[in-house]
Write a structure and sequence with these properties.
Blueprint: E1 2-17, E2 19-24, E3 34-44, E4 46-53, E5 59-65, E6 69-82, H1 112-118, H2 128-142, E7 144-145, H3 156-162, E8 164-165, H4 167-180, E9 185-192, E10 199-200, E11 204-211, E12 215-220, E13 225-226, E14 231-237, H5 240-243, E15 246-251, E16 256-266
Parallel strand pairs: 7-8
Antiparallel strand pairs: 1-6, 1-16, 2-5, 2-15, 3-6, 4-5, 9-11, 9-14, 10-16, 11-12, 12-13
Helix pairs in contact: 1-4, 2-4, 3-4
Length: 274
């Protein structure tokens, strides 16, 4: 599948900003099942200083604001082939050691609620892939997708207690569970081509687990659907903090507003428009 992505992020500040810096993780990963045809990021009110790969192999850009701006616009545009035949990986051989993805983090520490929930699978003799499928289904049945009940600082345990959250929370809960069962898992941020609409207001989040002889296998618990060619991977990491598409700071402005407009659509054969 070939997908065309356009993402416009506009920041507006109440006062001219004397200095600001942001880190962008808005470049898609290049993998065996994701081939980038073209990808471009244009900036208004800011300029790129450096780009680099982090320890999770995510491409990052550091940008600084042009002094005294009141508006920053980030334009992302590109096309990508997804759902290519994925290479099976017999053993783990990536940059980060596998134990990193078994460790708890601030967001993925199991409290009493999640520990009790996982007890059913603690002594399971099912294959790892089947345990993960059962976990994903069980989490989905326990949780309601509700916007505004949680925020970027909400932990998996907190969200699971109230049984409400968004895609970030669903991914964190799943990762907390698999890590509690000693299964390596990682957080993924990116785009999703939805069936009902091409337009979105935010990037998406899901999770992956590493299984010997299979490699990384994706689970979108929030939507209860298989991760396939509709997904574009931007960044991976231990939790949300490692994959946040944009984070940074600025001085001399008390308030800011941000609006994101995203369009992800399937590109027809022969359509070479940028």
């Amino acid at each position: 599948m070939r997908l065309k992505v356009q993402n416009t992020i506009k920041y507006q500040f109440s006062n001219p900003v004397s200095y600001g810096m942001q880190r962008l993780r808005l470049w898609p990963q290049k993998t065996s099942d994701q081939i980038v045809d073209n990808w471009k990021i244009d900036l208004v009110g800011a300029k790129e200083q450096v780009n680099y790969k982090d320890h999770h192999d995510n491409k990052c850009s550091l940008i600084t604001f042009i002094p005294h701006v009141t508006e920053i616009i980030i334009y992302v545009k590109g096309s990508i082939k997804t759902g290519q035949k994925k290479k099976r990986t017999a053993v783990y051989s990536e940059l980060c050691p596998i134990w990193i993805y078994r460790n708890e983090t601030v967001f993925t520490t199991a409290g009493k609620s999640i520990t009790d929930f996982c007890r059913f699978w603690s002594d399971s003799r099912l294959p790892t892939i089947d345990i993960c499928k059962e976990l994903a289904k069980a989490i989905k049945s326990e949780m309601d997708y509700k916007i505004g009940e949680t925020d970027v600082k909400t932990t998996a345990e907190q969200s699971f207690r109230i049984k409400r959250g968004v895609c970030q929370d669903f991914a964190h809960i799943f990762l907390t569970c698999v890590r509690h069962l000693n299964i390596p898992g990682r957080y993924v941020s990116g785009y999703l081509k939805m069936d009902e609409s091409n337009l979105q207001t935010a990037t998406h989040a899901w999770a992956e687990v590493f299984i010997d002889n299979m490699g990384w296998v994706g689970f979108d618990i929030a939507n209860n659907i298989e991760v396939d060619g509709r997904y574009v991977v931007l960044a991976t990491g231990c939790d949300y903090r490692d994959t946040n598409p944009i984070n940074g700071f600025h001085f001399n402005s008390d308030n800011e507003s941000v609006v994101s407009k995203i369009e992800v659509k399937r590109q027809k054969n022969g359509d070479s428009s940028q």
